[in-house]
Design a protein that fits this description.
149 residues, single chain, 50s Ribosomal Protein L19e, Chain O, domain 1
Length: 149
């Protein structure tokens, strides 16, 4: 049963493409007899001819990714975009480094491994960016023989 003409007319009435026009299979004889736009309008109002909904983008994958990101996944090198400064700002990196160094120097002073004068000198050096890490402070103290007996 060819209903191409009816489909074309229905598409123009429903203001959509012919692919989206659907007929109820049990009423195909009525649809075949409808040859004018007014006949088709009646069938549309009865719900025998209808427009199928538009296909939308599925959010399933997006939700799955969001759950993974909440768990702290997807943070590897392949996911990073932009400069290193964009991922962790220089200031934040500096703050983390200097806080670790200052805490380490404080700990050494409290344990009695450094004199107050040595502590102050090392503190100023770390403030000036002299030390790369806590390990560097240890190496420097070994080389300069700054440990208190």
């Amino acid at each position: 049963m060819k209903l191409a003409t009816q489909k074309k007319l229905a598409a123009s009435l429903l203001k959509c493409s012919q692919q989206r026009v659907k007929f109820k299979p049990e009423h195909l004889h009525e649809i075949k007899e409808a040859i004018t736009k007014s006949d088709l309008r009646l069938l549309i109002s009865d719900g025998i001819i209808f427009k199928q909904g538009e296909k939308e983008v599925s959010r399933v994958r997006a939700r799955k990714i969001r759950v993974q990101k909440r768990k702290g996944l997807r943070r590897g090198h392949g996911s990073k975009k932009g400069t290193p400064n964009a991922n962790t700002p220089d200031k934040e990196r500096w703050m983390n480094k200097i806080r670790a160094q200052r805490a380490f120097l404080q700990e050494l002073k409290q344990k009695g491994h450094l004199s107050i004068a040595t502590y102050r000198a090392l503190y100023r050096k770390s403030k000036g960016g002299f030390f790369r890490s806590k390990r560097h402070i240890k190496l420097y103290c070994d080389d300069q023989r700054l440990w208190e007996k």
